[in-house]
Write a structure and sequence with these properties.
Blueprint (H helix, E strand, L loop, with lengths): L1 E7 L1 H5 L3 H10 L3 E8 L3 H7 L9 H8 L4 E8 L2 H9 L12 H5 L8 E3 L3 H11 L8
Helix pairs in contact: 3-4
The protein binds guanosine-5'-triphosphate and magnesium ion.
């Protein structure tokens, strides 16, 4: 089994969608082994998304991620990274497959409701950015 870092973004927490999104993860066979609601500062969002620092939307992205509470969580399961990205759908909701979180809930390419790690190395880094080992309960 594998673990991945998931974030339910401010556009989704604002609309009270945490439960509906978690239901999709659980229905796909992913287990929520850690979860907390936090409000990132813009600087913390910037550190988390540092790989995107050169992208034109970086400032907007950091502003958005600090605009309200997020739910950070660790999802565990068989091929959890790929499975989570499947449940999330494409970055742009206009391209997201029917039934995915982004197709159903995302408001735009920026305010797209969820984040998911994209590889084992980034998953490990992102999990340790938010959680200590003691907080992961499989
Ligand atoms: P994450 O799981 O959040 O990393 O999404 P992703 O892997 O599907 O997309 P990517 O890593 O390429 O981009 C990271 C995040 O930046 C996206 O989820 C969006 O929130 C935001 N983003 C990407 N492209 C754009 C864009 O063109 N405009 C804006 N405003 N935000 C964007
Ligand atoms: Mg990404």
């Amino acid at each position: 089994t594998e673990r991945t870092l998931s974030i339910i973004k401010p556009d989704a927490t604002k609309r009270n969608l945490t439960g509906k999104i978690n239901a999709k993860f659980e229905e796909a066979g992913l287990r929520i082994v850690a979860q907390k609601r936090i409000h990132l500062s813009k600087a913390q969002a910037g550190t988390f998304y540092a790989v995107h620092a050169e992208r034109p939307f970086y400032d907007e992205l950091c502003e958005f991620m600090a605009s309200g509470p997020v739910v950070v969580q660790v999802l565990e399961g068989e091929s959890a990274i790929a499975k989570n990205r499947e449940v999330m759908g494409a970055t742009n909701p206009a391209d997201a497959a029917q039934g995915t979180v982004r197709a159903e809930f995302a408001e735009s390419v920026g305010e797209n409701s969820v984040h998911g790690s994209d590889a084992p190395e980034t998953a490990a880094e992102e999990i340790s950015y938010f959680f200590s080992g003691l907080e992961l309960v499989g």
